[in-house]
Amino acid sequence: MTTPDPNGPVARLLRYANEVHSLAGRCGRADLAEVLAAAAARWKDECTDIVVAGAQKRGKSRLINTLVGHPDLVPVDADVATNCFLSLRRGPKLAAVVHRSTEDGPVRTPITVESIPDYASMRGDAGKRRDVVSVDITLDNPLLDGLRLLDTPGVDSLTVGHRQVTVAMLQRADALLFTLSAQDQPVLRHELEFLAEAAERVQAIAFVLTKVEDSANWRTLMEENQARLKTFVADAVAENPARSTTLTPLLSAPWIPVSSKLAEAAEAKRREGRQERADALRSRSGMDALERHLRGFADGREFARGATVVNAALSVLGSLGTGAKDDVAAGSDDENDVAARLAQVETGLEELTELAARRRAGAVANTFLGREVAGIVAARAAEIRQPYENAIATLKKQDQIDRYMAELPMSVQRSLEAAWSQIVYDVEVLARTTLDAFARDLGLDPVDLAADRRMMPSFSQVQVKGDVGPEAPEQVDMVRDVLPSASIGLSLGGFAATLLGPVGFILVAPAIGAAIFMGRRSMEKVQRNQAALRTALRDQFSLVSREMTLDLERMVATWRVNVEQAADESLMRRRKELETRRAELKAASARSAEERRKARQSGQDRMTSIDTLTARGLELRKELAAAVAALGR
């Protein structure tokens, strides 16, 4: 890493962060000093992490393949739903390593490049996908020099935890490329909400409009996307002005139209030796402009990281300012100053008491999540089971039933596996909506839900009990089976006697009776087996539904406990801070005049330092924001 200009923003930022860190230590707030240290922890990492995110079918994975020059490297298809994140960085050769998180700890397994889709895509092998956290891909491409591209799941994926994977990756991101498609609908609400969440974590953001090769109206669509973004930001800031700092920069983020298709065509022409045509297609593809932005992000990573450090420092200064103001008020000769501060503390404690009551009421409401989970599973299972029951009713022969029974277990297993993602998505939406509302009611930020990556419960083999096996002797009921058949045989035998005489009666009547008897037996056996098959199917669906419900209830219960514990810890921490402030204010008011004077002077000195550092921080943030906005341009 190059030594920063001693008068440049990065060097001034480092000095500034050290001053704030030292001030927190002098004020006895090691907890706040640690917050700042954590924000600066990645400062020496010389690899720039660029997260590529977007909804499904927006051209994200194909874009990455085109950038690194390997069209089939990252899984791409119409229904791709990346199961983990993929890391692409420069290395001596093309290779891939799977990282798993198991009960015994992390496991690292080299794999072939061709098998990446088996581990990183929902279309891959379910057994291989299990417990996969990431796939690390290395390749020798100059574009990746000092860069790491992180391909993330679609932000609208139906699989539980996919959005959380992407949000978690933003914690380590230096920049974000957000993809939208020129051949798809304009940016949607959930995409804008993700962007708002991303803007709180990432300073350097660029929009990439993909698939512009076949869209004559891509400029119109881009303008509509920009208008929707502007409206969303305006509404969000009007509702909460404090969000202006993070959301407003989205309006000045660059938009880069690109075409992976044209870039691939350009490479094909280059291989054919048609250099002029290749250059023209490459220019139209927009990839050169995008690569310039990527290099700009890499060269300016210190600006992006610096903006994050400044935000952390300003937050620390705000907390330190509260304590300094208390000391100034406690040392005042005017008792009303202390009384006013004490009144604020008492009001805060009363509000916490009300929040604690709401927390208890909310926790009771949260216990009903389990019932709603069972309802979701039951409804989806019934929806899947019905076509099978309809098909059973069409089976007219025993050999059809036999073939159907042989195919049924695997067919149902596939149907349930296909539905599992939707079921857990529905459960996640339910849990997130309920628990986020619970957290917001207590004044907390939404809590990330850690996804449970366990496999779907196995569907056991369908066992039809009560049917007649091929080797089992038939049990004949004379009243039910033989007499009706004999009666019908005699009636038809009389008709035969009329035509053929007595011999016809003797020969035909028993044969007809036997045929009717065997047909009845065959038909009733089919009907009994149909009924048994339907019963077995329902029993098995009931079993799997219980297993699914148990797994999902356990997962939701874990989330609920985590959110409620976070709420308890937050309320306890806030109460402890207020009670400490109350005790210090009361103790300060009982001090001697000289002690109060010293406390007041100390508080005023700290306030002066805090105000000065805050002003410097705001200027630095503005300067760094401008530097970040200029990256790649």
Automatic annotation (TrEMBL):
This is Dynamin. PANTHER family: SARCALUMENIN, TRANSMEMBRANE GTPASE FZO. SUPFAM superfamilies: P-loop containing nucleoside triphosphate hydrolases. Residues 601-610 have a biased composition (Polar residues). It comes from Planobispora longispora. It holds the Pfam family Dynamin_N. Keywords: Membrane, Transmembrane, Transmembrane helix. Residues 50-211 form the Dynamin N-terminal domain. InterPro entries: Dynamin_N, P-loop_NTPase, TRAFAC_Dynamin-like_GTPase. The chain crosses the membrane at residues 492-518. Residues 584-610 are annotated as: Disordered. Coiled coil: none annotated.
